[in-house]
Amino acid sequence: MLGTVRRSSESRNRQFLRMLSVLLLLVSLCAAHTASESTRVSYSQRIWKMQDGLPEQVVQAFAQTADRYLWIGTTGGLVRFDGERFVVFDRENTPAFLENNVFCLTVSQDNTLWIGLEGGGLIRYRNGVFRSFTAADGLKNDFVRTIYEDRSGKIWIGTDSGLFLLEGDRVRRVDNQDAIPALAVHAVFEDSDGELWVGGSRLVRLSGNAAVEYPLSGEASRNRVKSILASQDGTIWVGTVSGLHKLTPGSSRFELVPEISGTVRFLRETSDHTLWIGTIGHGLRILRGRQFDQMMSPDTLPSNTLLNLFEDAEKNIWIGTQAGMVRLSSSPVRTVNLPDGADSDAETVYQDRDGDVWVAAVNLFRFHNAQASQYRIPELSGVRVRNVFRDREGALWLGTEGRGVYQQAGNQLTHYSTENGLVNNFVRAILQGKDGSIWIGTDEGVSRWRPTGISNYQMHDGLCYFSIRSLLEDHHGDIWIGTDRGVSRIHGEQFVADGATEALKNEKVWAIHEDPDGGMWFGTRTGGLYRWRFGKLTRFTTAQGLASNGVYELLEDRNGTLWMSGPQGISAVSRRQLDVVADDPSQSLAVTLYGVSEGLETIQMCGGEKPAGILTTGGEAWFPTSKGPVRISVDQPHPSVPAPIVIDRVIADGRQVNPSGDIQLNPDNAKLEVDFSVVLLRSQERVRFRYKLEGFDKKWSDASTTRSAYYTNLSPGHYRFRVAAFEMNNPEQVAQASIGIVQTPRFYRTPWFMALCVLMAAATAWGAYQFRLGQLRVRFAAVLKERTRLAREMHDTLIQGCVGVSALLEAHSSLGETQTGGARDLLDYARTQLRSTIDEARKAVWNLRQATPAEIGPQLERMAEQISEEFGVQVNCRVSGKQFAFDQFTLHDVLMVVREALYNALRHGQPTKVELSADFEEEHCVLRIKDNGRGFDPAAVASSDGHYGLIGIRERVERIGGKFSVHSRIGAGTELVIEVFREAADARKDLPEMKL
After folding, report:
1. Domain coordinates of the chain in residue numbers?
2. Which of 354, 463, 482, 812 is the most exposed place for a label (fewest CB within 10 A)?
3. Which tops the pLDDT comparison, 218 or 842?
4. End-to-end alpha-carbon separation of the chain, Å?
5. What is d(CA 487, CA 485) in angstroms, rounded to the nearest whole number?
């Protein structure tokens, strides 16, 4: 009996131990599963297709250069991507491309981009220059399938027919030799031992000049190699057209991986040691540890045909598919999957005092111990729940759409509607006051539930508007009610007004929050965020740095960060920083936006009912959206390094200018456009730009969404365009770029032209001065000339006349008294001579002449007759030839010359006869005055003082452009010859009349 009891006790002990071990195993599995769930990376997704800028849908290759640009190989060309803009290189714009189908890409250690084309050979891109390699360079096959650089810097090229090695600018084939068989190469990889694995038509390992072939299980036609990878643990992975094979360390044979089927196009290991396996037609398989996950179309991928995968420097995962390009970015935002897919439209979220999270969607859900389940109340079947609230007594309140409010206390369910005194059956917000009363906001006002009954507040009671959006009780016990047209405040039992209620009377107040310092915050539908503190209302909008002017919900976490949902997504900003900006508007806000970058671009945030967001006890922010609740960890690090900014295009009057150096604009340039961007491959929605043209702009300008700056009609001068970029959540980390711009002036605004103008002005002033001096000299010379003329005229008229009168008077005085008749004649001659002298003097002084030309012949004849009578000596006059008219100047001078010559001959030569002749020919006229007097020595007369007759004659003849000569000798008479040219006479006809 004792033995039986002992055996029974031992049996129970063994059973207990077995149960304990099973329990421990289950606990460890649950812990492992929990750990796996906690460490699983959450990715946000973005897809690009042709309508987004890709030249074609099929994306086959990726690479990233040192400047952080992502290079994308497509069937439509090579694409450079900065995270926002695509730049395409193809046969149309790049001569090196013989084919547009880019099959593979790699970047070597010297930052050279190598491009393999399907049918177009190999292209090298270095320092902005494309250089192609074809058969002429030794590449005998143009279908390049892989390009690989080993640790020593050698570039290996795999083609459909051969393995090639790049040596300088030549390509040499290395297979089809004695030790290496002929290969069609699709994959090359170097393992940790430095040995090269080459796969394609065969799988071989190159060791020096030798090749070791590795057979794979299955038919040879199904074992064509498409990809090779040596993972961090030393395993060699080989993807073929029929599946995945692996060679573990220490093993000599490849074994088939049963979880993978179909063609394995690529194998990639990311920095977190995750193995990514891309297949043709079977989606993307992900191996973490020993567990396989799967991504398939249409949930996360646009196609199940995967062609390539790449991890960039920012840890983004880029996936090339047959139907577009996908970016997976690590994200703190996760969308909560509800048990029923039809319940994705979540209206409100709420966490009760037990830590359970409630989600009001099409149905009501409860998250208990991180497990979601539908919460069913039979009486609410078919009723849409809008709000969930648990009061301090533990009762659950459910606000509905059109059915009022339900109160569940234990197993008892109580219904309140308009039939029971509720103001309206469409509930939007529920709040419990400090006194235990329940405030219910509806579409038609506010109801206050107390155990004694329900009281209502509507517009006729003082409520600013009937449509309720939010409720809050402050630390004073006042109830704040946000509506679609203002905010109301109840103090005790009465509505009271203050500066906040007055200032917000036209705003849609959808969110109200009281901070620990007693400040009141109001989020509005379109008017931004307001702070009411110490009797002052401060407004914050996008102008101060907010992500949006629409605020649906407003929460504050334990770190003093305000979380706001709105039409642009979810944003977080430090409340203390908002306080700083309120006092100093020049300060910048650091705003973290969770939107497109976290996959929220297609999600509509919800905020019309409350609560439209919660901060859980586990340190997460939950917000309802059109695709289910999203959850965000409240502690997120800021980026430490700013993304580089580039000035990628400058357009002057429609003409693109190379922005690599300073830009010089021509004088006619009227319009200038500067385009800039930031090289940031994760979402750029948080990036903000500002720019300034130094020398033109006085302050920085915020850039528009076009990321361009425009200027017109810049004045000539030197400028520097500066642009700065920063992320909203880290405005202190700023990246800058700049470029010099020279607006050249027109030639008449250049310094040399200005200096030349100054010199010309000075020269003009000097010339004017010299011209004035010249005028004075000319006038002085004219005065001297006129004096000389007057002296000559006086000599030829007054003096000669006076001499004649004097001679007559002397003759008169020599006559006796008996010769009265002769005396009378002499006096008559004297009077006539005197009158003639006076007339000639008057003409000479006033230079009175007829304006028309005249012939000289008649005047010479009258002069000869008059002088003959005056002196009693015969003066014969003869005119021959065809006369031409003389102008009055020339006529006067010629007559004066002839008269002077006649007077000199009669007065000094004592001739008995004088001959005067004028011989006209075609081009000139020759005048001769010849006497038979006693003659003289011309040289002696010319050198004597006081005799001006010959001098005056010479000057007059020279003045009219003629020639003068005198022939005389003592005792043989005298002949004067004067030659006057018709050309000089005609030229003087056109001269203006000169008057004194």
Report:
1. 49-332, 345-550, 645-745, 750-848, 851-996
2. 354
3. 218
4. 174
5. 7
